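PROTEIN DESIGN WORKSHEET
SECTION A - STRUCTURE
LENGTH: 245
TOKENS:
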């Protein structure tokens, strides 16, 4: 089974290698992601996130409370470098919502009987079974890879400047985080990998050590001086053509 749809502002591709998984399992995945976009987008005036940010009185959902708790966990763990409530900006939990929701979608596939699948949401990946090969894009050359990872039952997330410019803000200073060009995290789930990658990027070069010290996380990063930094347990199978040295 293969499916690609545009959800939450980016392409989401699904590949399921199990032959007995019904098509409705993929339907459930994309329906859930569309629901998440409607409920948690900071760009939709009727979303739970925007209503909460405006101070409206309503019973927040268990899901939103879970997301906000994760946001607070990473804010505290980074000394404020990661912050979903930046001064002068509205509440924006997207750095947590993406990984959290895609991992939940992976759970729907597992519940439907899928054992070997790859769910790629805008470059962030949940892979079940394996092994799967996942490339780390060169931060300055879109047609090159820095490395190729070999993962089984794991998730990979990257935060970088190459797609959206200097969009990640260091909450401690209010300025864009520019100490790194890209940072990739491998973790057991995308609920962990995605926010850890964003939080570490916001921290700058010190974020590489911070992320690598978190249980189950491995890191590959390229700093602003184009030096490669990586944790010793990173499951690299090969360096890509044109890798940064």
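SECTION B - SEQUENCE
RESIDUE ASSIGNMENT:
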């Amino acid at each position: 089974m293969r499916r690609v749809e545009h959800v939450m502002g980016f392409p989401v591709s699904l590949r399921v290698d199990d032959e007995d998984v019904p098509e409705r399992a993929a339907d459930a995945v994309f329906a859930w992601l569309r629901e998440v976009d409607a409920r948690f987008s900071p760009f939709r005036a009727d979303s739970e996130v925007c209503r909460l940010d405006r101070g409206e009185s309503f019973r927040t959902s268990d899901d939103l409370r879970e997301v906000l708790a994760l946001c607070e966990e990473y804010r505290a763990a980074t000394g404020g470098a990661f912050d979903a409530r930046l001064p002068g900006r509205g509440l924006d939990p997207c750095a947590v919502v993406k990984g959290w929701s895609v991992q939940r979608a992976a759970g729907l596939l597992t519940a439907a009987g899928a054992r070997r699948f790859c769910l790629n949401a805008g470059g962030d990946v949940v892979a079940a079974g394996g092994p799967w090969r996942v490339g780390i894009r060169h931060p300055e050359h879109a047609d090159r890879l820095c490395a190729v990872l070999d993962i089984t039952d794991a998730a990979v997330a990257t935060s970088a400047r190459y797609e959206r410019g200097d969009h990640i803000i260091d909450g401690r200073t209010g300025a864009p985080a520019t100490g790194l060009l890209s940072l990739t995290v491998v973790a057991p789930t995308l609920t962990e990998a995605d926010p850890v990658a964003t939080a570490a990027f916001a921290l700058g070069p010190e974020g590489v050590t911070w992320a690598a010290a978190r249980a189950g996380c491995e890191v590959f990063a390229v700093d602003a001086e184009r030096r490669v930094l990586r944790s010793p347990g990173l499951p690299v199978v090969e360096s890509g053509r044109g890798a940064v040295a």
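SECTION C - NOTES
Residues 2-239 form a domain with the T-fold fold (CATH 3.10.520.10).
Helices lie at 23-40, 48-53, 62-77, 94-111, 190-203, 206-212.
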